[in-house]
Amino acid sequence: MDVQGPEPAKFSSEKEGQAQAGGQFGREENLTELEPLVDKLCRILKEMADVHEKALKLAEEKKERLIENDIEGLSEVVEREEKVLQEIETLEKERGRLADKLAGLTGEDELNISALKEQVSGERRRRLKKLQNKLNPLLEELDRVNEQNRQLLLQAMKFNEVTFKLFLQGADEQGVYKKPEQEGSAGDDGVDKEQVRNIIDRRA
């Protein structure tokens, strides 16, 4: 399972804001309301960075399990990934609600971090820049590892398909094949399906 992270550097809002000249706030109360929202946004982005770091570590671990063909280990990693995905989904919903409020204050339908940095100053601007610089390369690396895992998984599926065909061929040579008219569980193709299943169980 690929862990797909949200794009934290861009905010989409379903609410339509009213455009204001120069992208600046026309009223002091807007700025007063904006600053605590930016503080909350920084907290959410920090949590998202932490969760995506966990997702990246799991993606790297998944790659090792795929290379080693460790099915049991891979299953365990996938279970942990599910929990991380739930964390990401929860944070994304919270970020989305906050994006609506920010877009309403700034008069923008879509607001990215670069534009938001221009609306604040001092420590808030520095925090936004730091989080942006951390999240962007983190997500790029996560996408890269997830793509590697996808390719490894496709290769494993093709390998297993070929292996199973060779297994059936070997089973045929060992006398698993029966003529269709013989009694037993042979199918239309002449292969005794029950006997094949028994061989698989013994070799598993």
Automatic annotation (TrEMBL):
Where would one find coiled-coil regions in this protein? 42-148
A biological process (GO) of this protein is: bacterial-type flagellum assembly
Can the keyword Cell membrane be found in this entry's annotation? no
**Keywords for this protein:** Bacterial flagellum biogenesis, Coiled coil
Kindly give the Pfam families that the UniProt entry links to this protein. Answer: FlgN (PF05130)
Top-rank taxon, per record: Bacteria
Annotated region Disordered: the residues are 1-30, 175-204
Compositionally biased region (Basic and acidic residues): 190-204
Check the record and name the InterPro entries matching this protein: FlgN-like (IPR007809), FlgN-like_sf (IPR036679)
Annotated signal peptide: none
For this entry, the protein name equals FlgN protein
